[in-house]
Amino acid sequence: MAKTAAKLVANTGRQCLRNFFLTCQSSSGAHRINITEWGEANNSNVLICAHGLTRCGRDFDTLAIAMSDKYRVLCPDIVGRGKSDWLDDRADYNYPQYVSDMVRLVAKSGAKTLHWVGTSMGGIIGMLLAAQPNSPIVRFVINDVGPIIPKSSLERISKYMDEKASPLFASIEDAITIVRSVSPFGPLTDAEWRDTTLPLIKPAANGQWQFRYDPAIALALKSQPIVDVDLTPFWNEVKCPVLVTRGENSDLLLPTTYAAMCAKPNVRGVEFANTGHAPMFQDAASIAVVREFLLSK
Questions:
Q1: In CATH, which superfamily holds the domain spanning 11-153+228-295?
Q2: Are 141 and 118 in contact (CB under 8 A)?
């Protein structure tokens, strides 16, 4: 299976890459979210890949290429990130808003079959959607997040966002260095670090570079006291088959939470060695794990 994934990544190329914008609604008006799309546009088998807190949909390029022979793959930039609009009211950076936007995307996709891969924040969005009665999600990969999110990991993320809030970088290489220093994604190559950093930054004044995400996201995160988060009532309502993926050194999906998730019927788990929060699905072996699960009967 790993060789199959490697062959797909090598042979598919990037000719299937497209972008479109989708208009959604918040309390303060309309906003557009950017979606990167792979595969045949008329394929009713849809895979949505949702990213982490300050990342963007281009995190999934390698996985999307490998899956585009079987799916129309949609990789949204969640509002406030990537090339999507920023919200006028920072209070709207919340999960009800993200879920509302993704419901709009699901409806727009016209999916006959909907599968979901979600990393961290994207996994929570997927959990909230999959927990709904008559959810369209029929297979779900939840990557390095679970129903119990410890306060300590949220404090680390908050500190990390404070430290990198709207910094200016003298060069692309400086931005890559910073991203590498705070992102325990595992053993990525230099080329992979570059590929996964470039979509996160944009040109600034005087030849400098800055992150694309809205700094107000950090303010929204800090607007409430940081406490342990318990989403167990939602997790208990997820009925579809689930693959839980975890970095063995993750501080966000703790071993006890991971073990409890894998004990639930219709759930299996895979851990990736030498990886923290979160696995990035850049190599053929990890892609093969996702592909085998999503395409299994």
A1: Alpha/Beta hydrolase fold, catalytic domain (3.40.50.1820)
A2: yes
